[in-house]
Amino acid sequence: MTATQLEHFATQVSKVQLPHWADFPEMGLYADQVIGLVNDRLRPLGVPPLTKAMINNYVKKGIVIAPVKKKYSQNQLAAMTVISLLKGSFALPTIRAAIDQVTVNNYPMAAYDRFVDLFNAALRNEEANKTTLDPAIEELLNLAVVTTIARLKTTALLAVLQEQLPPTKIK
After folding, report:
1. Which residues contact 165 (CB under 8 A, 6 or more apart)?
2. What is the per-residue DSSP string for 78-130?
3. What is the spatial distance between Cα 55 and Cα 35, in angstroms, rounded to a whole number?
4. Average pLDDT by consecutive 10-residue portion of the chain (171 residues)?
5. pTM over 0.85
6. What are the residue boundaries of the structural domains of the chain, listed by start?
């Protein structure tokens, strides 16, 4: 990746802002609306799009709570946003276990908003505000953020390098 391409990628990524809990609609959303909302926010990061089949799979496996009357709440939107970001770096059971651990002594809204604060700050290469979360939970969230952003940057860099100089196939 040339310096210019690297700067362009960093500029694009720094413009992304994950939504906080309060930014999600309070009324329930249907699966298609959830897909649109999550994909619109994550597309600039190069995250694979969320699909209806994925949502159904997450519900079936107990990764996400089942919708009520086919409508998804803020809690489920937050979970699907986090899962969509982390699934390229972590297995689904690991993500579910981490969500459960982070929310043991924290409300889901507070835990999600802290994840968003850390993620948004990392995208801009800034320090996140201080927190009142347990230091171990803070470290867990921070490591997930750092790992995920490193994977996103690695994937983008690899795509540029492959475009510039396609690898030769070994026969």
Report:
1. none
2. HHHHHHHHHTTTS-HHHHHHHHHHHTSSS-HHHHHHHHHHHHHHHHTT-PPPP
3. 9
4. 65 84 95 96 92 96 95 96 96 95 91 96 90 91 96 84 79 76
5. yes
6. 2-158
